[in-house]
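Q: For a teaching session next week I want to show students how multiple molecules come together into a single three-dimensional assembly. I've collected the sequence lines for a complex. Could you give me the predicted structure tokens for the whole thing so I can convert them for display?
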Amino acid sequence: MSTIQFTIDGKQCTAKPGQTIVEAAKQNGVYIPTLCHFEGLKPAGVCRICTVKVGGRNMAACTTPVADGMVVENKTAELEDYRKAIVEMLFVEGNHMCPTCEKSGNCELQALAYRYMMMVPRFPFLFPKRELDASLPKIVIERNRCVQCLRCVRAITAPDGKRIFGIVKRGGHAKINVDRELAQSMSDELAQKAMDLCPVGSILKKEVGFAVPIGKRKFDTKPIGSDIERA
Amino acid sequence: MSKPVVATASLAGCFGCHMSILDIDERILKLIELVEFNKSPIDDIKTFTKQCDVGLIEGGCCNSENVENLRLFRKNCKILIAVGECAIMGGLPAMRNGIPVKECLEEAYLKCPTVDDNIIPNDDELPMILDRVYPLHEIVKIDYYLPGCPPRADLIWEALVALLSGKELQLPYEVVKFD
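A: Of course. Below is the structure for the complete assembly, covering every listed component.
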């Protein structure tokens, strides 16, 4: 199989044909921040955190395949500020009360905010009215924290392959909903998978929470992406 | 040269951030050498007696008294710092932001099973509840933000020392957290 040669911020990188920029970057020890992307799932390209510059154009690194001779800009001041702005926008357009959230410390949105040293969002808080659904047997859906990454929509299916989660309405009214019948019969394992997959605290498994003490959670001591980055 | 003057206040907060200021342990002795305190619950000075250099504000604004107090701090402090999640984004009190004030008051004073006089308090002496809880920077200009619930003692200490000495602030990753 032929090998693709390309560069990220001047660093010589190699990739296999068909790999996306995010995948190839990871393999070469370069971290491109992602939020909606999850390894193994079909890329959705909805959050744009992974925006990189190729040939002077902004593109989503999670959906763009690498090409031979590609020159990718990743960690530039301009792109890092775009990414920080997206994180800030997600914080103000939901109700993200980190101190009261079960996912705090393991939350990818929060971890990105830490990575970008977000002290306060530059945009005004919207305090939207969102519904919480605690009526299902295995999971709680806390829409105040949802960032609509569509991970649950893409990955969580019933044994017959039917999707349990879906998105209803459009634009600012869009929200995650469930097929109530299918969700009734979710197993413990599937509920756990849905919770682990959710980058924020929007899908929670019932009857557990705050199980890991502060200091031992995923992003307490290590910034998100530090496991990928190599000098 | 006289020492820099620091004032502090807790608005719609729980005093957790003030506890975190005290959590700098023995460095509190250094702090006393470094600064002079003015209006603050720490020394119980109730009114500003001079112009201050730094104001540390904990908690957001949930009533008219909070707003007056915040504006007073802005007037009397050269630099105003929002300390903690409530000051930055409303925090726990802001969980009422999606609920109309009338419903909140009815729930607390009329429908609550442990009340027996069933009156919503209303007196000129009582501050008016605002329509929602406001982060500080939506009311006055805020110069710096220290996130956390509460902000780590090390964050408060390092930020104060950097500010007062004019040195650049180098923060370790563990120190900036939202919980």
